[in-house]
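agent: user wants the full assembly modeled, not chains individually. Plan: 1) parse entity lines 2) check alphabet per entity 3) run joint structure prediction 4) return tokens. Steps 1-2 passed, two entities, 900 residues total. Proceeding.
--- entities ---
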Amino acid sequence: MTTALLSVENLRVSFKGSDGCAPVVHDVSFDIEAGKTVAIVGESGSGKSVTSLAIMRLLQSGSAKIEGTIRFAGQDLTTLSDAGMRRIRGNEISMIFQEPMTSLNPSMTIGRQLAEVLITHHGMSQRQAEAEAVRLMDRVRIPSAAARLKDYPHRLSGGMRQRVMIAMALSCKPKLLIADEPTTALDVTIQAQILDLIRDLQREEGMSVLFITHDMGVVAEIADRTIVMLHGRIVENGATEQIFGAPQHPYTRALLAAVPRLGSMAGVSVPKKFEEIDRATGIAIVKSEEVTAKQPDPQTPPVLEVRNLSKYFDIRSGVLRKVSGRVHAVENVSFDIREGETLALVGESGCGKSTTGRAIVRLTDPSGGEIRLNGEDIVKLDENSFRSHRQRLQLIFQDPFASLNPSMRVGECIAEPMLAHDTIPRASVRARVAELLQQVGLDPATRDRFPHEFSGGQRQRISIARAISLGPKLIVADEAVSALDVSIKAQVINLMLDLQRDMGLAFLFISHDMAVVERVSHRVAVMYLGEIVEIGNRADIFGNPQHPYTKRLLSAVPVPDPARRTSRPELKVSELKSPVRPVDYVAPHRVLQEVSQGHHVQEWGAEWSNG
Amino acid sequence: MSNAVPLPAAPKRLGSSAVRKFVKNRAAVLGAILVGFFVLIAIFAPVIATEDPFKTSFTAVRKAPSAAHWLGTDELGRDLFARITYGARTSLLAGGVSVLIALLFGVPFGIIAGYFGGWIDSVISRVIDAMLAIPFLILAIALAAFLGASLTNAMIAIGLSAAPIFARLTRGQVMSVRSEEYVEGARVIGLRHPRIILRYIVPNAVAPIIVQATLTIAAAIIAEASLSFLGLGQQPPNPSWGSMLNSSKNFISQAPWMSIWPGTAIFLVVLGFNLLGDGLRDAIDPREH
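--- prediction returned ---
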């Protein structure tokens, strides 16, 4: 056994609150050996981030109490002076955070920000620092590094900014890199590139990495050892292969069961529920074999038909606010959804999937095309005549913390649609609210509480209860489970599948998460730069992807299986292209070709030829 | 259907932390005490004042503070303690009513501009900009002079001059709340605009407006005093701190108490409202939670 670089023993962190000290991390002990990657995985509130902040001594000493020992290269960090700790930070231990958008100074060029670190920490001259900055940017694989140095952060995409952050963190050749959810805010293809980068750099530099994440897929991709945390305690600590191959603790098993695995649906044609395992006992509450979903009847007319939908946003500039360009957010999009069917709309940020959903519920007016609900074109209707159609068309948002009015009680929130449309007599609204709460798995007694008293998953259930209160035909679910913890995500998806079976709901499931999409959808449409590049049955899209973008998207999904880690092809450094076009731009007419029944693929041009 | 989800523990009342934060803030509590003190004086003026504020006495002109006249007398021999006490009514009334008028005009226009946007917003915003280009007090004086000298007209003038401040603040608040997902959700449900505004926008936009209203009461009290000082506000012989200062200016070396007491009263009540407003702002500010 080699000596550990970082050794945490009986770490205990408490926060001083209004009612005394509340411990949030209990008796956490682990080691990180030189050159190894250790991942701490857990859901929100598990204490994983607090642990990393305690190691860096970045918690406010006034409000947090740290007990136990943290030994780094022979020194006890808990007893080190502030000056000594500052020397460790940056020089010996570096840290990168989740939000690349806010962690760079927007008013300085990235070259100057990088150089500043080098000048203060290494006493380099301006010229040396600039040369070193170019070298570092090359190291993190930023294309044409020298030219990029003069850019301000807003010119860079999220992935590129995260590369700059990593370059800064590496500038002092740290022995340990702490990465706190570094890829969570990034798109999946960009995430894959950043993970590759961190792994390559670690090998080249021989540094240790402490990787904090909630994503089991990411853990399997990167970690040598895995620590599973729950409610501030370590529940399992072992080699990654062992954690994934033979999980011991019921919670680990529950967590792994809830992780969607790409390819797990081969040979199944309808959506399948997630297995739900009790965290304490390890016994399955819901079996994944339960096939609840049905194949929609191809004879029935579609609930929703979208034809050549387009949405452009004008970009205005100058004193006269002249239109100087257009964002082609949605371009010529067409699809159908039948009763009881889930069509997933997948793609990365900026591909127009959310705008499509918003146009269907008329939160934004389309620039062109038709949207037919039960055969009637709703684009032509004015606000007042459209109002009655809203009963059949509902929306669930992504952020459960923003989608409920904080000043209204939960019962009022749910009753709102029924009162607005006068669907049932006022006297029976209360009973109906109780019924709806029960239907989404909440206690009817909670109706008198305010939304801030609920957790994210519970709030999403409330949103669902409200969405189904009018008995809609179609629900647009815009990233409805993306913000939820993995086990909660599985529960909410299972609820949605149950509701689909019972009510014959059609879902437009907008998501960036390919693994979840594979689980829930009957059909899938892949969007890229505002257009649908491939659409077809779920089995065809996942089993036989045609378009290069679909293939790239699928290959980038982290696989929650450490054994399959090496089987991924080398990814090129790429950025998502921008849908901003000149004013006179007219989209080329692109043809969708049928490759098999119901599976259409857009013809692609030369830009895809080299992958 | 699905297994029931356990309930969150210890439901916390909305705003309880704001109250706790306010109580901890000593300056804010001092402000609240000052405001409360003057409100009590105004309400119980007939009980507190030992003499009739209108009773002149040519044997007691410009007397220094004494046992008979605690704060002294003015140039007509009226008891200053009684006039200060009754003056509190004028000042608080002017502050409160002016701000109510300002809210009545400013908030609806702000809501319309912020919620509907487009050309309505452009028109309202340009009018707000034009009104804000003129200093508050100058505008109030001009309006009061135009409407004619009386306390009622002074309050209308001050209220109208302060209205654009509220219109602009409300507009900004409404615009930020309007883009919240729960408001978009309300649109998707199919709610009508008045209901969305009353149930979704106003309750979530109102906190900063309350804070601004408290601070504006202080400004309105000064404005009323200024207008009365210029003879455009409270008309003699009714007592007002501003008009008391006006009549005292000729005797400032012979009878300094005539200007000191009304000046101190204005200072204290304005300080009180400013501290209270600042405290409310700090307590409500969501970034501090």
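agent: reporting back. Residues 1-14 of chain B have pLDDT under 50 and may be disordered. Chain B touches chain A through 29 residues (CB under 8 Å).
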